[in-house]
Amino acid sequence: MAKGSQLFQLKSALSQAGISKTQNGKKRKRSHSIDQDKIKKAAKLQEIHKKLNPFDVKVTKLKHDVGGRKIKGSKGQPAQSKQAGIQQREMTLLREFQDRGRVGGVVDRRFGENDPSMSIEERMLERFTKERQRASKGTIFNLEGEEQLTHYGQSLSNLDDFDDVGLPMDEDEDDDQGQLDRDIVGSAHFGGFGDKDEDETDHNSDRKKSKAEVMAEVIAKSKEHKARRQLEKVQEESMRHQLDEDFDSLRSLLFAPDAQPTDNNVAALGSSGNQPDIPSVDIDEQMDYDRQVRELAFDQRAQPKDRTKTEDELALEEKEALEKAERQRRRRMLGDDGEDSDDGGKNHGKRKRERGGDDLEDDFLGDELWEGIGSGLGEVGINDQAVAEGDSEEEDENEGVDEDEDEDEETDDEDENSEAEEGNESNFGSEAGSVSGGNFHEITTSQKSAKLKPPGGSRHELPFTFPCPESHEEFLEIIGETDDTDVPIVVQRIRTLHHPSLSPGNKVKLQNLASVLVDHVLYITSPPAPRSTLLNSIIPHLFALCRSYPIESAGIFVEKLSLMHKNLERGLSRGVLELGTRTWPGSAELSFLRTTGVIWSSSDMSHPVISPARLLMGAYLGLCRVRSLTDITSGLFLSSIFLQYEELSKRLVPEAINFSINAVLHLAPSSLKNVASIPGSFPSPDFRSDLCAPLAIDIKKSKHLDFRTPNLYRLLTDDNHQEQDKLDLLGLAFRLLDRFSEMYKSLDGFIELYQPVLDILRKIDVTKLSEGVRMQASSLQDRLTRLLKFSRQARRPLLLQAHKPIPIPTYIPKFESRSSSYLRRHDPDHERNEASKLRYQLKQEKKGAIRELRKDAKFLAAVEHKQQTEKDRAYKEHMNKAFSSLEGERAEQKAMDREKAKEKRRSGRK
């Protein structure tokens, strides 16, 4: 190609191709040769264009060039592709964009209207032809003519009104399920319609029956069937009538004035001329039938039931009932015995029963005192088992409120769960250490015997409405003159009056109530007189509140645990062996920890409340030192709480086992002299110390004493300890070791854990104590010996892991039968390979769709920009014309003003 500018190169290429020459005035060639020349000229121009612009062709460089292989898409023409895409979008997308605001319109769908190749005459001729064709189609089924021949050339006028077609004459004729015979269908339904006057004299059986014969036979059969059905219907009616008459005679016999007719009367009735003969009926059967008829007559019909009320409606009813009872109580206090305004005058006119001389003055409160509300509200199904076993007066009061309590769904559900938790919890008082007898969480008889009596007599009458306390001080003011047995009733009524569905602010009030109850738990279990019975009755309400608001309640418990941890740190910093420092938890803290295990789930792997409580109890048992019998009592109490926590999860708590065996070392007489002589590796820093030496049991004073259930609350609050208390704590330590062994016998390290315990138990000397103590110690040693024996038998030595031999890796190349390209991805699994291909295709299609959408958006943006530019240009031209017109007018006006000024000056006017 020649050198120079693009224009020079273009001119050179055109001259060499012979395109730039001008046409001479020769004769015009034929049209065919002209078309061929145009095609050749366009090809030359295309070739010249390619040579002048080499960037129109894009070549993709291959990483691995293989000779003879053709790859689709390796060469491309971006400019042409772009131009083709633009043209395609102008034909489709641009038209849609331009027509996006159009609605309606008339589309001309006449024949040939959109065909530009047809002339007007051709269109009209084709339309006329199609119109005549449509008109000729309708004449085939036109029945308005005189003679329209159908059915083998017969006229419809010659046919009767389908008398011979075999249609049923009556709706009752349902012979053969309403179906016609095959011969009738074949002959009558477009199958012949022979003449009626054809020869009928030939009755030969071989010949085929005519249509008239077939129709006559069908009609005869139909009439016969209809007559037979009529006869059966008459017979059934007569039989029914006879049965009705017989029943009337039997009924007159049954309901005769004589309730017990004799056999002669029955026979006479049966043989009389006015009555039909009936068989003799047995007297017993008559009486049974008579009784059944009377029972059916007096049977009560089912009554419609009220709809199931919602939780909000039930809560509102409970609140209104309590408020009504409170108003009645206040009227009784003021001596007003008038009618209740809430009753609406329903009880007006009812006089109270007058008292007689034999009355014992035991109906002072009267029935209207309680009216289904009273102290029993909230007791059934929510208080402790001891509360549920009240006296007869309490049961009578509860009968009146069972309906209301059953309707309150939320309260009852919470209370049932509370009962379940209560049934599993142990007594927080003297029974806290009772871990023998199979059920560690058993409530003792002494607690079950506690009775909660309703208010009345000398007791303070309990109100029915209470404000919701925001602090523990307000709660103490509310229950200031209330008996402990009535405190759960007060809490229940507060929860009922402040149900969350009654007011939006009640939710916050009940959350504060949960915090108040936690503070009250610590208050009632504090020295000097912890009240475990009241604690057991409050726990169900606290459990229900914690279940309703778990997040807020968990924060309350965690806050208390954090405060207890700070107190522990403060006590440890002052000295673990100082007698004045308080390191071990007291009765209030221990009761709180046990309540925490009752309310929250202690079997979770990680719990926001139980996990900190478990760490705190482990710190108590591991860091605190034993200085007195009270410390041993607190440690054994913590060990029993650990046993309660880990009963389901069976986590190993070495601190609890360590303290239990240390308690045995401190209390029981043994032959061990110092820490070095103790078997195993249990840490015992206080063994045989100056503070712990007096804690050992005196054999002379305890030789006739036996194990009893220790009252841990008394031991925690009373400093006057006897030898019986030491012996009771030793028995508790034995029971704890026994229960922990049953819990941990499935552990792999049970042998290493309990073999030192068994060795220590063999070292203690209980031969001079009572028979019961010796038997229990011997029984514990036997059980541990048996469990250790079973654990050794079940233990197996460590072995190498059994597995298949590992094959030697091979480096032979993998050849594929379907493809020789080792670069392509191939999966031996056919389904996975196909899924991978589909995912790849989906990815490619998605990328292509995104690319096309971007091009469409770019094209539409260019069109909009072009339209906006055109609008701006037209607006600018219009404004320029307007300004130029205004400027011209202004210029003419100024010129006229100047001329007028000149005229004035000429004429001498200014």
Task: Note the topology.
Elements lengths: L5 H12 L13 H22 L5 E2 L15 E2 L1 H14 L1 H6 L21 H19 L10 E2 L3 E2 L26 H7 L22 H44 L8 H9 L11 H15 L13 H23 L51 H4 L3 H8 L2 H6 L1 H16 L20 H4 L23 H7 L8 H11 L8 H19 L7 H17 L1 H25 L12 H13 L10 H14 L5 H17 L8 H14 L31 H4 L9 H6 L5 H22 L5 H14 L7 H24 L35 H77 L4
Helix pairs in contact: 1-2, 14-19, 17-19, 18-19, 18-20, 18-21, 19-20, 20-22, 21-23, 22-23, 23-24, 23-27, 24-27, 27-29, 28-29
Can you give me a brief rundown of this structure?
The protein is mostly helical and 910 residues long. The protein has helices at residues 6-17, 31-52, 78-91, 93-98, 120-138, 182-188, 211-254, 263-271, 283-297, 311-333, 385-388, 392-399, 402-407, 409-424, 445-448, 472-478, 487-497, 506-524, 532-548, 550-574, 587-599, 610-623, 629-645, 654-667, 699-702, 712-717, 723-744, 750-763, 771-794, 830-906; strands at 58-59, 75-76, 149-150, 154-155.
Please provide a written account of the structure.
This protein has 910 residues and is mostly helical. Among the domains are: 86 residues, no CATH class; 185 residues, no CATH class; 196 residues, no CATH class. The protein is 54% helix and 1% strand. It has 30 helices and four strands. Strand 3 and strand 4 form a beta hairpin. Helix 14 packs across helix 19 and helix 18 packs across helix 21.
What is Rg?
56 Å
The count of DSSP E runs of length 2 or more, i.e. the number of strands, is 4
Uncertain stretches of 5 or more adjacent residues: 160-166, 169-176, 191-203, 258-281, 338-458
Strand order of the largest sheet: 1-2
Overall geometry comes to extended
Q: SS-based structural class?
A: mainly alpha
Proportion of residues in β-strands:
under 5%
**Total DSSP helices:** 30
Largest sheet: 2 strands, antiparallel
Overall helicity: 40-55%
Average per-residue pLDDT, rounded, comes to 75
Distance between the termini: 83 Å
Keywords: Nucleus, Ribosome biogenesis, rRNA processing
Protein name: Nop14-like protein
Function: Involved in nucleolar processing of pre-18S ribosomal RNA. Has a role in the nuclear export of 40S pre-ribosomal subunit to the cytoplasm.
Subcellular location: Nucleus, Nucleolus
